[in-house]
């Protein structure tokens, strides 16, 4: 091992140790380079209009595939995972309205960015001047791809990142910077012949293994879509009013999910007390107060009311 290799290895170990100390569950490092294999996949996905009304997905095609266009002199992508699986879940009976578990607590953008900022500052303090940027859904970065290249898991048939130790209930963030480090390698795919996620999707959004038509996903309809929800999917939402966890809930790897250690992601007392009639009668004032630092604010009050009304049977 050369002196340079030794320095890279020591710096990488420092970063991973510091990430664990800050509270991240996993940290991996990959070389910042053009995503050659992803380019045709992304192009085909966009050409099939799988992004629906998410026009931003078609923007900055070159930057989405090459992190060096986002950070000058970029050499590495440091990927981190932060578990959000709740210790206490909302009831999901036949009459209960459902929220994706990532929306139980505080908006993850705030939590993840704060922790990534601590990590970047620790790197700069330990190593010196480092040109780096933090990313949490804040730019065209293919976070699941980079996490997989960093050995943190593999992209499953439902298109979520899967980790053998803790499943898929993770937030993903990155630091793209100009450090030359020791890089991790990708791991193999452990989905095997399992098709539970594909079979369970009520809107057939997983059109083939590893390909999700975003414009058919319940999460898309309840969060991204700003227009009226198409009538042809009425009766298929299984009472989801914000997001959907079906493909993750049925995944065998999520039997290894463990409760998050991050208190901000826990089910809030106010939200835990909500019943179906509370959702149906919610006012804009209560919505703004209860969800001002929640992921639910993204759908806005009118969007949430639209989602709830869409579940009502036709008269």
UniProtKB/TrEMBL annotation:
A Pfam cross-reference name: QueG_DUF1730
Pathway(s) of this molecule: tRNA modification; tRNA-queuosine biosynthesis
Location of this chain's protein in the cell: Cytoplasm
Gene Ontology biological-process entries: tRNA queuosine(34) biosynthetic process
Residue ranges occupied by any 4Fe-4S ferredoxin-type domain in the UniProt entry: 179-211
Binding positions (tRNA): 226
Annotated residues for binding of cob(II)alamin: 64, 137, 161, 172, 219, 244-245
Cofactor(s) annotated in UniProt: cob(II)alamin; [4Fe-4S] cluster
Gene3D superfamilies referenced in this protein's UniProt entry, alphabetically: 3.30.70.20
Source organism, top-level taxon: Bacteria
Keywords tagged on the record: 4Fe-4S, Cobalamin, Cobalt, Cytoplasm, Iron, Iron-sulfur, Metal-binding, Oxidoreductase, Queuosine biosynthesis, tRNA processing
Active site, renumbered: 137
Enzyme class: oxidoreductase
GO molecular function, one term: cobalamin binding
Residues given in the record as [4Fe-4S] cluster 2 binding sites: 201, 217, 244, 247
Cofactor note: Binds 2 [4Fe-4S] clusters per monomer.
Enzyme Commission number: 1.17.99.6
Residues engaged in binding [4Fe-4S] cluster 1: 191, 194, 197, 251
GO cellular component: cytoplasm
Family named by the database record: Belongs to the QueG family.
Subunit structure: Monomer.
HAMAP family on file: QueG (MF_00916)
Entry protein name: Epoxyqueuosine reductase
Organism of derivation: Dyadobacter koreensis
């Amino acid at each position: 091992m050369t002196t340079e290799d030794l320095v890279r290895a020591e710096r990488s170990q420092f970063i991973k140790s510091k990430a664990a100390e800050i509270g991240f569950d996993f940290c991996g490092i990959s070389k910042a380079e053009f995503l050659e294999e992803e380019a045709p996949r992304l192009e085909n996905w966009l050409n099939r209009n799988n992004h629906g009304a998410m026009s931003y997905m078609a923007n900055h095609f070159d930057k989405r595939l090459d992190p060096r266009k986002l950070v000058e002199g970029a050499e590495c992508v440091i990927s981190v995972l932060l578990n959000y699986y709740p210790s206490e879940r909302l009831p999901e009976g036949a009459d209960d309205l459902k929220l994706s578990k990532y929306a139980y607590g505080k908006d993850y953008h705030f939590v993840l960015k704060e922790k990534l900022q601590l990590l970047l500052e620790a790197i700069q303090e330990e190593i010196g001047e480092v040109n780096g940027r933090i990313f949490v859904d804040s730019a065209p970065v293919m976070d699941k791809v980079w996490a997989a290249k960093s050995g943190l898991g593999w992209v499953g048939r439902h298109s979520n990142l899967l980790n053998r130790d803790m499943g898929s209930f993770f937030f993903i963030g990155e630091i793209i910077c100009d450090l030359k480090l020791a890089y991790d390698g990708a791991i193999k795919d452990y989905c095997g012949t399992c098709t539970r996620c594909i079979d369970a999707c009520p809107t057939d959004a997983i059109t083939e293994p590893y390909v999700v038509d975003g414009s058919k996903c319940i999460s898309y309809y309840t969060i991204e879509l700003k227009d009226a929800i198409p009538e042809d999917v009425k009766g298929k939402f299984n009472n989801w009013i914000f997001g959907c966890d079906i493909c993750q809930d049925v995944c065998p790897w999520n039997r290894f999910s463990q409760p998050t250690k991050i208190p901000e992601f826990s089910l809030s007392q106010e939200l835990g007390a909500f019943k179906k009639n509370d959702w149906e009668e919610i006012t804009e004032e209560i919505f703004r107060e209860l969800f001002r630092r929640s992921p639910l604010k993204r759908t806005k009050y009118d969007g949430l009311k639209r989602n709830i009304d869409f579940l009502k049977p036709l008269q």
